[in-house]
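Exercise 7. Predict the structure of Putative lipoprotein from Izhakiella capsodis.
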Amino acid sequence: MADDAWTGKDKAQHFVASALLAAAGSEYAKHQHINGSSSAGIGLLFSLSIGAGKEAYDSRPSGSGWSWKDFSWDLAGAATGYTLWTLSQ
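Solution. The predicted structure, encoded as tokens:
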């Protein structure tokens, strides 16, 4: 497990990247002719999958360790991207 703070540049990067991935994943699913609510769900899960993958990568022996704080910021960013994309439709 990582021993990190709740704030910092790293957390902002997790938030913004997750928001962008959720919105981009939702838009991509929409272009694949998947309906709106399903598209948004796909985008949300896409973003969270990338975040979980990043934390799994950090959990390797030479990594910094799994950070629930990072993943919490990923979740907040993904929810924001999901919400903004949904509101834009």
